[in-house]
Write a structure and sequence with these properties.
The chain has 205 residues and is α+β, with helices and mostly antiparallel strands. Helices cover 47% and strands 13% of the residues. A 4-stranded antiparallel sheet has the order 1-2-4-3, with helices on both faces.
Length: 205
């Protein structure tokens, strides 16, 4: 309950949220995207550092260009790497790319103060990166829950890492690229996925 005695509905959004992989072609407005980003910016962060930056791709031509860069990166990763499960991972990344091409909005999420993958870190820099990553994760979750509340579908995407170099070169942002989020009107009805029971994941002391 809030201070006015009104019941908050965040719990309903938490349990209603689904990962959507089929979107309708309907346009999403700038105002709707601003609502999502404002929700993301309301997330908690260590020392109120607010370590996030959002690149919202709404223009259709720009969407094709950035996702063409992602496709090139996936192909490069496929050619340069050979390890167990790679085929399944690349297949999943290509499927994710096809989903992103149909989403009216793709939001790339960066953490400007985080060091890039492969950079050396001191102990305290590692701690700072871990804390900032948690803050950015909270901002993404806020965005997903806000989308659910607005009747929009969303998908939290990490397959961007298969094209990390190509995407970061194209988007030209400082810091670490954390994730992408596809947003649109859902064109599928996704059931609840299996979850571990509270007993499995909780130790009471």
């Amino acid at each position: 309950m809030d201070t006015c005695g009104k019941k908050m509905i965040v719990t309903k959004a938490i349990h209603k949220r689904r990962s959507i992989r089929k979107f309708k072609p309907d346009t999403i407005t700038r105002e709707q995207v601003e609502t999502l980003i404002n929700a993301a910016c309301a997330a908690p962060s260590s020392k109120n550092s607010q370590p996030w930056k959002f690149v919202a791709i709404m223009n259709e031509d720009e969407r094709e260009r950035v996702l063409d860069a992602m496709e090139l990166g996936i192909e490069r990763f496929d050619m340069e790497n050979d390890f167990e499960l790679k085929s399944r991972m690349i297949s999943g990344a290509r499927h994710t790319l096809s989903i992103m091409r149909t989403a009216p909005v793709n939001i790339f999420v960066f953490a400007p103060n985080l060091r890039h993958i492969g950079e050396s870190r001191t102990y305290y820099e590692t701690l700072d990166d871990l804390v900032s990553a948690q803050s950015v994760g909270a901002s993404i979750q806020n965005m997903l829950l806000s989308a659910t509340e607005m009747g929009l579908g969303s998908l939290w995407i990490c397959d961007i890492y298969f094209a990390y170099e190509e995407l970061t070169n194209y988007l030209k942002q400082d810091g670490l690229m954390i994730a992408a989020v596809s947003i649109g009107l859902a064109d599928e009805s996704s059931g609840k996925r299996p979850r571990k029971s509270m007993e499995e994941v909780t130790e009471w002391r």
